[in-house]
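Page 42, continued from yesterday. The earlier attempt failed because a stray header line got pasted into the input along with the sequence. Redoing it now with the clean sequence only.
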Amino acid sequence: MEFRQVLTILFSSIFLSIGVIFGVLRNKIFSQQENSNLVYYFYSFSAILFIFPIISAFIYWTDLYDSSLIAKIIYLSSIISSITFFILCKKYLVIKYIFNIKEIDPVINSFTENSDKQEIKLFGGDLNFFGNGPGEMDLNKQYICLKSLGFNKVLILCSEPQNTTDNIRYGKILNDFKNVEIRYYDPKKADLFIRGRLKTIQGVTKLLIYTKVKKGLYRIIETDTANSNGALYNNIWELAWGLARKLSTTEISSLSRL
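This time it went through. Structure tokens are written below.
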């Protein structure tokens, strides 16, 4: 293989990498919300694109040293493009599932904002992720976002309040949201230890499910009812909502006065 042939291959690899880069970006937009082992093929290919110019540089070092500036630029560009290819694959083809507390708010708020604003469903414990007292809730990013969007209907499935702090939190929610309905489920009988939201966008029900991995870390998955897991969680919501206890007029009035 002559040096000119090597340059031709490198030059072709540059444009191939650029094409793949745009393909990765397109995949980011249209890909399903699932990780795939296919990404390792992309990693392998990027490694080949990176290793080839390094090895060929050693073999044809004299030719490269004596070559024109354009040839040197082609060598350098082939290495840079292969590294860029790998970075984009790592960033966009591998879906991140684990988030810390600081990262979770933007994910949940982004999911909530991108909806038809007709109805949103929430389920989760004592709702302390909104904050404990009114002061914390007014500064809570999730609470601020949900309140500002003005959904026509907000359905909340949660556990019964266990103390004064819980009562005050629920009362504030009832006062701040005009069209909210809260129902109580019994976590001792049926708690799947999952939290999440369900929304509708263009007639399709989408879900954001998050579970606590360990202190400060949460696993988040976004899906829809076209996915078997999404359909399962949606059915669980419908069943749990139907079995949950509705608040009486007296309970609503009592909480609202807190």
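Notes: The longest helix spans residues 3-30.
Reminder to self: strip header lines before submitting.
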